[in-house]
Structures are given as C-alpha cells and as structure tokens.
Amino acid sequence: MSNSSAGAGSRVDYLVNPVDRPLQGRIRVPGDKSISHRVVILASLAEGVSGCSGFLDSADTRATVSAMRRMGVQIIQEDNYLSIHGAGLHGLSAPPDILDLGNSGTSARLLLGALAGQRFASTLSGDESLVRRPMRRVADPLNAMNAEVRITPQGTLPAQITGNRRLRAIDYELPVASAQLKSALLLAGLYAEGRTVITEPAPTRDHTERLLAHFACPVKRSGKRITIDSGVLQANDIHIPGDISSAAFFLVAGCIVPGSDLLIEGVGLNPTRRAVLDILKLMGADITTSNIVEAAGEPLADLRVKYRPLQGISIPVDLVPGAIDEFPAIMVAACYAAGETVLRGAQELRVKESDRIQALAHGLERTGIGAETRPDGLSVTGGRPGAATVDSYGDHRIAMAFSLAGLGAAGPITVRNCKNVDTSFPGFTGCAAEVGWEIKAAHAG
User: Fold this and answer.
1) What's the chain's Rg over C-alpha atoms?
2) Which of 124, 289, 398, 444 is 20 to 30 Å from 265 by CA-CA measure?
C-alpha cells in the first residue's frame, strides 16, 4: 500500500484526545466535491457565463479549475463563488504543457472524457498516488469511441490524448459501478456522432446527468440505461449543496459520543448519495431531516443527529455503491457498535487514494479493534478503541476517519500523514472544534 503523503512540505499529524462531554452545535460543511468538479468542467464547456456559489475550494477541485484555466477558460473566484466564462464545446485551447491534476482521480477521469473529443493534443498526469490509480477502465471505452488515449502498460497515468479525432457513439455496459467512468463517457458523448448509450450494473451518483440537464443538454434514463446525444451546453447559475461525504464524519461523531446533538445545515441529499443515512439508521442511528429544498436539480436539507447506541449489521450490498466514499466513517461507527458489522461488495475501495480496506483494517487493529479483510470488504467487531498511532497513508478520508475514532477511545489517537485532508475538507479541524471535537494538528519533518 502506497503512502501518498511523501513529498514536498512537512508532514501533518493529528492528535485526538477522548472527549468528556457531548458534542453540541450547528455547522455547515463545505460544498460537494463531486458536484464542484463537474460544475467547473461543464460550465467551462457551456456557452455564456455561469455563476457558482457554494464551490468547494480544496486541493482537488483547484486541480480542475487550474486545468480549465490552462485551456483558456476565464474563471474568476471570490471565496466560494466562481464566475465561469464558458468557452463552448469547441472553444478550449491546447494547454502549454502537461496538465498536472495532483491527487484528484475525479479530475483525471472526467477530463479524459472531456478532452477525448478536442481538436488538440493533451497529456494528463498527477502526483505519486494518482499515477498508481487505474485508468484503463476509462481509456478502453474512449478508444472504442475512436479517441486515441494512450496510458502506461500498467494502465495508469500519464495519459496522452492525441485529439483531432471524430468520436463515434458507443453502446457500452460498465464493467463496474463507477460514476467517474460513466461521467467520462457522457462527456465524450457530447462530441460523438450518434447516440451514446451506457448501461450501469448498479445505480451510481447521478450528478453529471442532473448537471447536463441544468446546462440544457438532458440525458435520458430507462432502467439501467442512460443515453446522450451530441449537443451544446448553455450557461446557468448554480448553488452547490454541502457534501454528504464530509457530513458523514459529523453524523458518526454524533452517533458515538453519548449525549451529543448536532445539526448539519444544507447537506446534499441526492438519492444516489444518501445510502450513508440508510446504513447508519439500520445500525440504530437517530438521524432526522428538515428544511428540504431543491437547488439546480439537487435536493438538500438540514440533518440532525442525536446520540443513540449502535448495533452491528450486515450492510446490504445494494446500498454499497451509494455510500462508497463514506465507508471510512461508517466502519469507524462499526467499531463503536455492539456486535459485528460486515461489508461486502466494496472492492472499489481497493483503488481509492489508498487501499481503504487495508488502511481501515490496519488502523483499527492498531487500536485493538478486531477487523478481518476480504477482497471486497471487511468485517469489524465492535468494542472501544485504545490509544494508538495509526497511519492515514496520505488518504484524506482515512485521516478524518481515525480522527473520528479518537473521540470515544480509551486514550489519545495520533493519525499520521493528514496533509491531504485539504483535498476534500479544508477547514476540517476548525469545523470540528465548533462542536467540541478538538483535533490538534502538528507539523513534523
């Protein structure tokens, strides 16, 4: 398992001491990361100027903004508001050199699709973690659409996109339930002759489909089949809801600290993303929703969580794709639940910023919690974590998960290599402090 935190700059470690009082208060988590990436790309390809509020200004999303700027798109940013001056589908210009996407797998996979139909050549790369992540699953169907995408023999970045190719529509069945792969092919479908048809093995997050409709290029769904025709995008303003993946850490925090009562405002509740709520409720969590509204096709609401003891469960496999990014938080909930929690059908966790199955098991075992891995998941036997030092392997969600584990532990938990938390949740430690969850960040050499 790679440690992607190695590199320039000092290491950041987190120290969490057990809390001795309930967590209380109301907070807002930053904007949804998945939607932020997609808005920047689609608004850049649209005709006209789009205003975007609630943008997640993080290391990952800045990689997408930087890439679009390097291809000639004017993006003006004031705090979490973007004004994106769309270039149109064919208005991008060739970047002056390699597009370095840092640690962002979403940027890489979506841009492979968007750049496959451009009239110029481009090359995508990233940091030492990103260049290990699988890209063949995207490159192969794009090449079947008559693109020319060349990746390494290992199926990874760097990726060279020849450009100036006439794309053909494809009727493609996804080999895995992957929203990033689906989105890449939908973006390429904007440039393809004919109707592109994608069949999902299981529903995945549908932000791209909703945003395409918001930018006046609707897609059609019939069961598991999604279709898109080539067309133009029209600029439109949008508000991005709070990221449920970030909210998940606070939902679990409220579940595991006795007496806690937290309100998380304005969280996105897309039906393909809310499985974390279903799973936690199956475990006995007391979570309620209020103030449900809709913004640009995305539902959002306030979430209130109150402490209630949790029970281990066998997580329904049909809920797994809709909670894939939330499992680091969910499996920490499992370590505080009575009995055993079993996760299956989550092999996609093996190819995230780290091998999250192994990273979770290693960390939980260090704290004295029983964890048994399998190729597609793991089982966790609940108890009380003990004092320990664990490694996040440079993975932002693993870092936040073990910070969460420290809340009710028998002693302090130190989490090493937490610098990458900024890729998805800048201001995480400050947000935690607002509700009584103290995380001490220390810089190490």
Assistant:
1) 21
2) 398
* Residue stretches of the chain with pLDDT short of 70: 1-9, 445
Locate 110 and state its tokens.
């979506």
437/167 Cα distance (integer angstroms): 51
- Name the β-bridge partners of 414: 15, 389
The one-letter amino acid code at 425 reads: F
pTM given for the model:
0.92
User: Which DSSP state fits 422?
Assistant: G
pLDDT at residue 9 in the model? 55
Residue 82 exposure: Cα atoms within 13 Å on the Cβ side: 32
How many other CB atoms sit within 10 Å of the CB of residue 292?
10
Q: pLDDT per residue over 207-254, tens digit each?
A: 999 999 999 998 999 999 999 998 899 999 999 999 999 999 999 999
Give the 3-state secondary structure of residue 381. strand
Between CA 202 and CA 213 the distance in angstroms is 21
Three-state secondary structure of 22-41: CCEEEECCCECHHHHHHHHH
Residues annotated as part of the active site? 325
The pLDDT score that the predictor gives to residue 445 is: 62
Tell me, what's the pLDDT at 276? 98
**pLDDT, tens digit (0-9, with 9 covering 90-100), for 402-433:** 999 999 999 999 999 999 999 999 999 999 99
The answer to whether the beta carbons of residues 434 and 27 sit under 8 Å apart is yes
Q: Whole-angstrom Cα distance, residue 370 to residue 59?
A: 34
For residues 293-307, one letter each, b for 16 or more C-beta atoms within 10 angstroms of the residue's C-beta and e for the rest, the string is eebbebbbbbbbbeb
Instruction: State the pLDDT at residue 5.
Output: 37
Nearest to 320 by CA among 343, 352, 342, 339: 343
Quote the CA–CA distance of 405 and 329 in Å, as a whole number: 9
Cβ distance 247 to 267 under 8 Å?
yes
Rounded distance between C-alpha atoms, residue 276 and residue 248, angstroms: 7
Q: Cα–Cα distance between 210 and 35 in angstroms, integer?
A: 10
- Chain length of the chain: 445
Say if residues 232 and 287 touch (Cβ distance below 8 Å). no
